């Protein structure tokens, strides 16, 4: 473990060096470097300019309207005032107004946009209403009116005017982005780990919008400087306070253009244009500074990783420590139930009181150490069931009936649906965790893998020291077969299989008793699928947790699962031991699913599949939902919703199947 921690420390040192190289390479790009130089130049002038001014900008002299000379580098006004000194003093005011207005405006945009987008509901309606009011008001007339009422308020008044009229558009953009981000799996994962709302917004939502916020900030600086110059030019500010706009105002009042005194107005206009250009050039390169996908920092990291690999080969790696003893293997005769789902019903509420039953009267049990596979076509209710079990569903989804009971190792039962927010926060990840189906979406793209694993630990174990957390992160990476030097990698730097392993590591972070895996092998090739499945089985046998494995791939499920549940139209249509299901599926839908997969041994057969499409749950067919596609359907199938019938198997176990062909009282009709 000491060697592993040393590897993490070396990788941590490589990260900042790689980051510095990325900054240097980005700054080496001609356009970005030019923009940075221009911006820094004007910022320095704004800070030290008044001390460098050769004259008092308001002092008059006999050199009236003098052209540029050695004595007056930018000439003089009609009162003999030195324009160069006015430019140096004016830079401070213009820059102060631009940056100050941008800070206030951006703060308001971020505050309103992120809160409205993430919180939703009444908060979204209220905050969006406020933003919309400012959006529909004409900005320029409003700015002029407000500035006219605050003529003697100085720079602070102008900052207030520009901020109050310019924040709404940025808030609108950030709200739209937040609405998109809050549905991403990595936000759901953060919510599932028990992170507070403020922490999710600051760590998961905000970092993914830094590029937009930075671009908005720089654009607001430019816009604020132009607005201040425009207001000063119109005489709506304190014209005795020197700024670039004030210089243009006095030039216009004194008809500098008509008298040919070009040196009076050209420097101020050129300074505004140059600063705006510099900020725009910086804006072009800002994504490269912030977005890890665009950082070309791989060279330094790879060199450090190669050095770590060489040292690792010379160091005997110790086996990872696990927090629980080896588990007793699961057997089909086990009666140690860890999770009971009874008559669960999940509806999606629509307009005018309508509802769509996505999960309808679902009942099953999960035993300790068992792998329960849930199969079915898309839209059968599998993922909705997973979100209901973990209490991650959001409106308009609602659990309208049923019960979910969890049994702790000490025998105490927990009503999952009765947990309050704090109890639910403690329950998730400690007792039950989830691995989402798309690892690229479930992992935060702007946080390193190690940080994301540590987040789950920090949320539930705040008393754990940083060193202990680092050890646990390394241990988890080794546990799922990821080299410790990848602890500082970003998600896009990992392969699909490694990302999925990282998600499994996050799910295992707190040694939960149950892990819900929602199609964890989706979009992976068969070789990687095999590796992921083998790793899941290895970890399950080693750590003793139970698994609810959701997929539409029956061939994978039969190999992995102890028990299989088949869902159709939001209901369970068959429940059986995996081997019994494979040898003798009882429901016509299950037979159709199995007939869709080729066999690797035995005689070749024609793949038949299932004709038709899954039912529309908003308007389901009467009776059995499968009867429009069923080759064995008869008249009663369109009238009666079949319950689960308990059937004997050749192995002496029982299989449950929801089909009327097993009810002799109604199956004597004519088959179709």
List keywords for this structure.
disordered N terminus; alpha/beta; elongated; four-stranded antiparallel sheet; ATP-binding; MetI-like fold; single chain; transport; 25 helices; Dipeptide/oligopeptide/nickel ABC transporter permease/ATP-binding protein; 672 residues; OppC_N; transmembrane helix
Which segments are poorly predicted (pLDDT under 50) over 5 or more consecutive residues? 1-5, 7-16, 296-326
Percent of sequence in beta strands: 5-15%
Q: CATH superfamily of the domain at 52-271, please?
A: MetI-like
> Quick one: overall form?
elongated
Look at the structure and give the mean pLDDT.
83
Number of helical stretches of at least 4 residues: 25
Protein name: Dipeptide/oligopeptide/nickel ABC transporter permease/ATP-binding protein
Keywords: ATP-binding, Membrane, Nucleotide-binding, Transmembrane, Transmembrane helix, Transport
Family: Belongs to the binding-protein-dependent transport system permease family.
Domain ABC transporter: 344-594
């Amino acid at each position: 473990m000491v060697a592993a921690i040393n590897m993490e420390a070396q990788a941590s040192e490589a990260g900042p060096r790689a980051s510095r190289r990325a900054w240097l390479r980005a700054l080496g790009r001609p356009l970005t470097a030019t923009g940075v130089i221009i911006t820094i130049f004007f910022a320095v002038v704004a800070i030290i300019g008044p001390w460098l001014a050769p004259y008092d900008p308001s002092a008059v002299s006999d050199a009236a309207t003098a052209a540029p000379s050695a004595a007056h580098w930018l000439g003089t006004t009609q009162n003999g005032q030195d324009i160069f000194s006015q430019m140096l003093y004016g830079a401070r005011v213009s820059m102060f107004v631009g940056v100050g207005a941008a800070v206030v405006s951006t703060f308001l945009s971020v505050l309103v946009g992120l809160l409205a987008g993430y919180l939703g509901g009444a908060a979204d309606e209220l905050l969006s209403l406020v933003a919309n009011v400012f959006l529909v008001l004409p900005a320029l007339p409003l700015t002029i009116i407000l500035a006219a009422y605050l003529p003697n308020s100085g720079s602070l008044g102008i900052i207030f005017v520009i901020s109050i009229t310019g924040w709404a558009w940025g808030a609108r953009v950030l709200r739209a982005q937040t609405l998109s981000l809050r549905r991403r799996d990595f936000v759901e994962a953060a919510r599932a780990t028990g992170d507070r709302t403020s922490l999710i917004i600051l760590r998961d939502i905000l970092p993914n919008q830094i590029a937009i916020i930075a671009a908005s900030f720089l654009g607001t600086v430019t816009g604020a400087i132009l607005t201040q110059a425009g207001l000063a030019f119109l005489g709506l500010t304190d014209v005795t306070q020197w700024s670039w706009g004030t210089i243009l105002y006095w030039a216009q009042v004194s008809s500098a253009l008509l008298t040919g005194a070009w040196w009076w107005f050209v420097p101020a206009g050129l300074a505004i244009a140059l600063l705006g250009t510099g900020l725009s050039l910086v804006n072009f390169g800002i994504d490269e500074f912030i977005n890890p996908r665009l950082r070309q920092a791989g060279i330094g990291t790879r060199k450090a990783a190669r050095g770590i690999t060489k040292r690792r080969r010379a160091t005997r790696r110790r086996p990872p420590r696990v927090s629980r003893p080896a588990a007793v293997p699961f057997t089909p005769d086990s009666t140690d139930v860890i999770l009971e789902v009874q008559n669960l019903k999940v509806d999606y509420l629509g307009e005018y009181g309508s509802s769509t039953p996505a999960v309808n009267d679902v009942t099953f049990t999960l035993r300790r150490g068992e792998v329960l596979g849930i199969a079915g076509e898309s839209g059968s209710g599998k993922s909705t069931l997973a979100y209901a079990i973990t209490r991650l569903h959001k409106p308009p989804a609602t659990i309208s009936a049923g019960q979910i009971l969890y049994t702790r190792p000490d025998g105490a039962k927990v009503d999952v649906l009765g947990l309050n927010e704090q109890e639910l926060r403690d329950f998730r990840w400690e007792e039950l965790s989830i691995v989402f189906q798309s690892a690229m979406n479930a992992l935060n793209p702007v946080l390193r893998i190690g940080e994301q694993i540590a987040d789950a630990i920090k949320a539930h174990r705040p008393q754990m020291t940083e060193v202990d957390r680092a050890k646990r992160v390394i241990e988890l990476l080794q546990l799922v077969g990821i080299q410790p030097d990848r602890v500082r990698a970003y998600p896009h730097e990992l392969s699909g299989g490694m990302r999925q392993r990282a998600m499994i590591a996050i799910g295992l972070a707190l040694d939960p008793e149950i892990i819900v895996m929602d199609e964890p092998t989706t979009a992976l090739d068969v070789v990687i699928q095999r590796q992921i499945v083998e790793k899941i089985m290895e970890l399950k046998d080693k750590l003793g947790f139970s698994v609810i494995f959701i997929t539409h791939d029956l061939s994978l499920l039969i190999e992995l699962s102890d028990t299989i549940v088949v869902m159709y139209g939001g209901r369970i249509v068959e429940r059986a031991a995996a081997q019994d299901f494979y040898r003798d599926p009882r429901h016509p839908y299950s037979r159709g699913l199995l007939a869709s997969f080729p066999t690797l041994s035995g005689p070749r057969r024609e793949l038949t599949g299932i004709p038709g499409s899954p039912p529309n749950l908003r308007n389901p067919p009467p009776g059995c939902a499968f009867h429009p596609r069923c080759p064995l359907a008869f008249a009663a199938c369109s009238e009666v919703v079949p319950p689960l019938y308990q059937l004997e198997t050749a192995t002496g176990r029982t299989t449950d199947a929801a089909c009327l062909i097993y009810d002799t009282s109604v199956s004597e009709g004519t088959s179709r």
